[in-house]
Specification:
The chain has 475 residues and is mainly α. Helix content is 76%, strand content 0%. It is globular and about 60 Å long.
Length: 475
């Protein structure tokens, strides 16, 4: 049962720390897997880059499709209970990933791990943000985003270190102590809450159809170069994606508990914030993979060196995320996002013009620092903008939907990067890498255009019920 009793500041901090730890866990498995992608490929030589890209995309697709149903189910069965189940499941599926004997079983285990992450993501913040007044929520989002950025910072060097001293399978085993700690602390500190007025069952069939649609779209993008963009296979995949996603839209308009609530999409700030989140995620996830491929395959870095080489960006994000939230609370989301997008474009131009000969200090380091600053300004602020005008009793659904848009962007970004870069000959590798950064530049420019449509100044604070049954935010 949901309590309306005010939460002491110390308890709020503890709850936020646990939620941030959960965000850390989910984001660690994004960046650490990207970093070790070349070594995973070496373990499965029978699979090409397009097949192995499903180790990344399967995780993103399942999260994108299941975030909302998982959040709604958690509203009914209890958010603390769902959080603990999700964390335990994440630990079990991480072990399955670690012992996978083939690339196909690794993809299957990543699908199951995506299910666990889809439970953790919406529930973690749904447990947190009822504890914070409206004027502090963007700051809380910034802290949660900083934890995710810290995971991004830890992922590359940790993945590289594990590959150097052991094996890529250890990138999944490191999740086990984190999940154990979260379960122990969560059981002691978190307060149970549920939506006592929830009715109807979430549209699980619609979520399954969404998985099919997103999977077909990713397949068409990844295989388009090999199949031929106008070939029969590409046309069939695009057709399946179009039909499946059209069915999902139709079900959203008619189902009582849809995957995406049309009422939320009619809120201007939510619609713009979610579209912006998708576009920034497209850039973000394409750049993560593109950076590792560039450093390892063009500059000849080891996986450890490549991981260490990307650390300054996420560290800059950690530093910037919290202050960015406070600036957004004071001056409005647009005032933070638009400059952040311009910095992002500048960073991508620097990274995308990197020469064939290594020049870390003079070229790569400035690009990574600018990239990290931009992410800290843009990513969490778009998430805060999305829920700025959402009623308090819809925060849970809004959080999950915005998170689904983020994962949809991850699917598109990863698939486009693989499609644009392909598997070029050594003589063409540099040009292919530079083309990969163009994908991100286009996405960021579109995101800046979306941000210009946001409200110029922050909305006036209005009283919000504390302890609401579905309060959450996204980063």
């Amino acid at each position: 049962m949901t309590t309306d009793a005010p939460t002491p500041a110390r308890s709020r901090s503890a709850i936020l720390a646990i939620a941030s730890g959960a965000g850390f866990l989910a984001f660690l498995d994004t960046t650490i897997v990207n970093t070790t992608f070349p070594d995973i490929a070496a373990s499965f030589p029978e699979a090409g880059r397009s097949e192995l890209s499903w180790i990344l995309d399967a995780y993103f697709i399942v999260i994108a499709a299941l975030l909302v149903p998982a959040g709604l189910l958690a509203d009914r069965v209890g958010r603390k209970r769902a959080f603990l189940v999700g964390v335990v499941l994440f630990g079990v599926t991480s072990l399955l990933c670690a012992i996978a004997p083939t690339w196909e079983t690794l993809v299957a285990a990543r699908v199951l791990q995506g299910v666990a992450a889809a439970i953790i993501a919406p529930v973690s913040l749904a447990l947190v943000l009822p504890e914070f007044p409206r004027e502090e929520r963007a700051t809380a989002v910034g802290i949660w985003g900083a934890a995710a950025a810290l995971a991004a910072a830890c992922g590359p060097p940790l993945g590289g270190l594990l590959v150097e001293v052991a094996d890529w399978r250890w990138i999944f085993l490191v999740n086990l102590p984190v999940t154990a700690l979260l379960v122990v602390l969560g059981a002691r500190v978190l307060r149970e809450s549920r939506d006592e007025h929830a009715s109807g069952r979430p549209d699980l069939l619609g979520a399954a159809i969404a998985v099919v649609g997103l999977g077909a779209l990713a397949l068409a993008l990844v295989e388009g170069r090999e199949w031929g963009w106008t070939g029969a296979e590409s046309a069939a995949s695009f057709a399946i994606a179009t039909v499946a996603l059209a069915v999902v839209v139709r079900r959203c308009l008619t189902h009582p508990v849809p995957v995406i609530d049309p009422a939320l999409m009619r809120i201007r700030s939510f619609r713009l914030g979610s579209i912006g989140t998708l576009l920034v995620a497209t850039a973000f996830f394409s750049v993560i993979l593109g950076n590792i491929l560039f450093l390892t395959q063009i500059w000849g870095y080891s996986v450890l060196d490549a991981g260490l080489g990307t650390v300054p960006g996420p560290l800059a994000t950690v530093v910037v995320s919290g202050p960015a939230g406070r600036l957004a609370d004071r001056f409005g989301h647009r005032a933070v996002i638009v400059p952040g997008c311009l910095v992002y474009v500048a960073a991508l131009l620097v990274l995308g013009s990197a020469p064939a000969e290594p020049d870390y200090v003079g070229h790569w380091l400035p690009g990574m620092v600018l990239n990290g600053i931009a992410i800290g300004l843009v990513f969490p602020t778009f998430g805060a903008a999305a829920v700025a005008d959402v009623p308090a009793d819809r925060f849970g659904a809004a959080s999950a939907i915005n998170g689904a848009f983020r994962q949809f962007g991850a699917v598109i970004g990863t698939a486009l990067l693989v499609a644009v870069v392909g598997e070029p000959a050594p003589a063409d590798a540099l040009d292919a890498a530079h083309r990969g950064y163009l994908v991100a530049i286009v996405a960021v420019l579109l995101a800046a255009g979306v941000a210009l449509l946001l409200r110029r100044v922050p909305a006036p604070a209005t009283p919000q019920p504390r302890g609401s049954t579905a309060n959450a935010m996204t980063a």
